[in-house]
Amino acid sequence: MGPSIGVLALQGAFERHQRHLERLGARVIQVRRPEHLDGLHGIVIPGGESTTMSMLLESGGLFDSLAAAIDDGTAVLGTCAGMILLASAVLDGRDDQRHLDALDITVRRNGYGRQRQSFETDLTPSWPHGQASDAASSASSSAAMAGLSSEPLRAVFIRAPRVESWSDDVEVVAHWDGAPVLMRQGAVVAAAFHPELTRDDRVHRWFLGIVAEEVV
Amino acid sequence: MTDAESSKSSVAASTGGFPVKRGLAEMLKGGVIMDVVTAEQARIAEDAGACAVMALERVPADIRRDGGVARMSDPSMIEGIMEAVSVPVMAKARIGHFVEAQILEAMGVDFIDESEVLTPADEAHHIDKFAFDVPVVCGATNLGEALRRISEGAALIRSKGEAGTGNIVEAVRHLRSITGDVKRLTQADAAELFAAAKELGAPLGLVQEVAETGCLPVPLFCAGGIATPADAALAMQLGAEAVFVGSGIFKSDDPAPRARAIVEATTHFNDPEILIKVSRGLGAPMTGIEMDEINQRYAERGW
User: Fold this and answer.
1) Among A55-59, B87-91, B285-289, which stretch is predicted with the lowest mean pLDDT?
2) Contacts of B5 in chain A (CB under 8 A)
3) Strand-by-strand arrangement of the A87-91 sheet
4) Nearest beta carbon to residue B49 from set A33, A47, A56
5) Which among A215, B178, B232, B248 is most buried, taking Cβ atoms within 10 Å?
């Protein structure tokens, strides 16, 4: 049976993530209440409005449980607004906007501009093959990653956040215009774009590979 | 760097393509888009968790009361709202008034609403929405109308309802009509789809696509008449993927808590426990009017 992945379903493109993950064999739970986080192997924070999600995380009492689950090492994938929520510092956010401080990056909200500047392009990903350092988990992870080709990755950026600085602990898998747009730090994966909006499922397959590493 | 690599790194970014336009609509799902007439209201809406705001000079209830020709809002008023908030800002152009849409696009508005709430500028044609880099949303009362708007390039459809009434009955009628016809198409065989396209007055290709996928090719939101958290949850349970609230918030007694409650209800639309909690103590909603009391049906505008 596939891993149980919780998709934060407060607002945004969560059903698109769900479709990708289910096609890849995961069991998907829509997370709206703290108890929905129990027993998950991985969590996805989708794109949407980060201010809206932040408010709803707070009012629903989900913020602290989500932070705790990530602290405990549950793998997490954040896309666009999800990346903002994972960041350690946010520029041009609202004063009361909370973030999870799980990824050592500083992001600027709408860093590429308004909707008129939203764009699509091809990225050149360099997947971290054999990332798992210890022998025990390398078997499962390299199996999961074996299928990831380095073909161009079509990426859609919608009023996207821009990573302005990042620590050495952040491994950059793809850049655009001098800034990381796909990255990983431990079990935390983030994309400035929307892998859930295109048919290419490599980002989700990579994430499920990381989930498998963490479960071992 | 190999030749292949250098050519990849010089790949251009393209703006204004349909995936980018529909992409913003996808990001608004599960959210509430609120009508605001001042920067102050826009801030209240953002504080309450609005996923976007609609900047306009008068909410539909006031347009209805005042009568006369309703047009695109003053650019300086819209710009004031764009400066006040960080969420996407939408603004309305009249049906067929592509110059109003050009102005809104040049201002950097994030989404244009080709809206029946304003007085139509063209009695036969809608705006060619493919000509714009920013996405355009249109209203629809039935599936045929929705597919005609999509064939013109709409990146998002909202059921029209009857704006400015605070009465959900028309929104329910339009949502049920659209989703009911979608369901019927999925049951039709190939020959029946030709006849269905003719009856709907919609392009065959889109009719076939809906029959195959069981949903519209773009997101479907609900507008027109939402006044309470329960109204928003009703629209969501009937198949809307997000809601527009016009007069319902700022024509109520206490807009800020009502706005927040409608945001919560849109997220937790299937959770009666939470709906009880957020519905308590909101003060009076907008008064609202019955359909046989209104002199002008905005939903009839659009061709």
Assistant:
1) B285-289
2) 124
3) A87-91, A103-108, A162-166
4) A56
5) B248
Residues A51 and A15: beta-carbon distance below 8 Å:
no
Q: How far apart are CA B211 and CA A200, in angstroms?
A: 24
Q: Tell me the average pLDDT of chain B.
A: 94
ipTM score: 0.92
Question: Which sequence positions of A are flagged as catalytic?
Answer: 80, 194, 196
- Torsion angles phi and psi, residue B255, rounded to 5: -60, -45
A52·B50 Cβ contact <8 A: yes
Active site residues of B: 92
The whole-angstrom separation of Cα A182 and Cα A103 is 12
Residues 131-150 of A with CB under 8 A from B: none
pLDDT tens by residue, B94-149? 999 999 999 999 999 999 999 999 999 999 999 999 999 999 999 999 999 999 99
Whether the CB of B214 is below 8 Å from some CB of chain A: the reply is: no
Q: Report the chain B residue with the minimal C-alpha distance to residue A151.
A: B8
Task: Return the number of other C-beta atoms located less than 10 Å from residue B9's C-beta.
Answer: 13
Could you say which of A47, A110, A122 has the minimum Cβ distance to residue B8? A122
Task: With CA atoms as reference, report the closest residue to B50 among B270, B298, B283, B258.
Answer: B258
pLDDT of residue B7: 41
> Which residues is B33 bridged to in the sheet?
B52, B244
At A121 the three-state DSSP class reads strand
The predicted structure's pLDDT at residue B201:
98
Nearest-neighbour CA in chain A from B49: distance (Å): 4
Q: Going by C-beta distance under 8 Å and a sequence separation of 6 or more, which residues neighbour residue A29?
A: A4, A5, A6, A7, A36, A40
Poorest-pLDDT segment among A119-133, A161-175, B223-237, B262-276: A119-133
The answer to whether the beta carbons of residues B155 and B21 sit under 8 Å apart is yes
- Name the one residue in this structure whose structure tokens are 């493919």: B130
* Phi/psi at A111 (5° precision): -65, -15
Structure tokens at A173: 């898998």
